[in-house]
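User: I'm curious whether this sequence folds into something compact or stays loose and floppy. Could you predict its structure so I can see for myself?
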Amino acid sequence: MQAARATSAGATPAEAMFAADEASRALGIELLEQGEGTAVLRMTLTPAMVNGHGIAHGGYLFLLADTAFACACNSHGPVTVTVAAGADIDFVAPAYEGDVLVATARERARFGRSGIYDVSVLRGDEAIAEFRGRSRSIRGTTTKESR
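Assistant: Here's the prediction. I'll summarize afterward.
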């Protein structure tokens, strides 16, 4: 895998897609590494991401994992739009304000226009969540940046 570039000029498909993802970037998510069918992202939990129980809101954990999934399944050229056909997440340990979480996505299978990806969300060596995403490439579409 290679470290993500800071600009979208000459970017890989995953880097270009992430550069246009204002929702993820506004939450402080960083694309650390990406490669064919893989991606590593990082997010620090802020006070706004903690629920009424004092632990990370599951929606933010899902968003981090989903963003890693999106970068991994959009890593292949040519630059076409690949979206989630479905996804599941298992929350295995609580995370707290200030925790730095790293989501690592790996392609498990690609067949036709579909794919299966697993994402592990870790705090250090401890698993926080496990995510499985199913992707579908949409024919005849491209990312906004490639138009």
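Summary: The helical segments are 13-19, 22-26, 58-73. The first strand starts at residue 2 and ends at 3.
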